[in-house]
Write a structure and sequence with these properties.
With 132 residues, this protein is mainly β. It has one domain: Calycin beta-barrel core domain (Lipocalin, Beta Barrel). Helix content is 0%, strand content 61%. The protein is built from no helices and ten strands. The protein has a ten-stranded antiparallel beta sheet, with no helix packed on it. β5 and β6 form a beta hairpin. The protein starts with 5 loop residues before the first strand and ends with a strand.
């Protein structure tokens, strides 16, 4: 089994969240089959509303359309066995970049994300997840 597959729960005490991207709780579930990655996220935002969704990624280094966002593509690639990088682009413009890295002992997942949000503001954050 790969190091990503499974359920992860955000450890807010260990995370560095951007002021405009706060939340009460967050979970992620990874399912990996070769280069196909299914990433399901869920959680409760600061208003108390539950949010969730699933993103399917293909870690082949090629640009793939992001169905939920017209004109946006995502490029995903493996960086070794314990790290995945994703880059979101619209044309030649990079909208955001994220890495997901599992610790050597397989107990911690660190998501580092930076980019521009829907309001056009730059943000950067690091969310630490513990394996469920």
């Amino acid at each position: 089994m790969d190091p990503f597959t499974g359920n992860w729960i955000a450890n807010l005490a260990k995370s560095r969240r951007h002021a405009n991207h706060q939340f009460q709780s967050a979970t992620m579930r990874f399912e990996v089959s070769g280069n196909a990655i299914s990433l399901t996220h869920g959680g409760v935002n600061m208003s108390g509303k539950h949010e969730s969704g699933t993103l399917t990624l293909l870690a082949d280094g090629e640009a793939h359309p992001l169905p939920a966002q017209d004109g946006v593509v995502v490029v995903t690639r493996w960086i070794g066995t314990h790290e995945i990088e994703t880059v979101g682009k619209r044309g030649d413009q990079t909208l955001g970049r994220g890495t997901y890295e599992v610790s050597a002992d397989g107990r911690t997942l660190t998501a580092r994300v930076k980019g521009t949000d829907a309001q056009g503001a730059a943000f950067e954050q690091e969310i630490v997840f513990d394996r469920e």
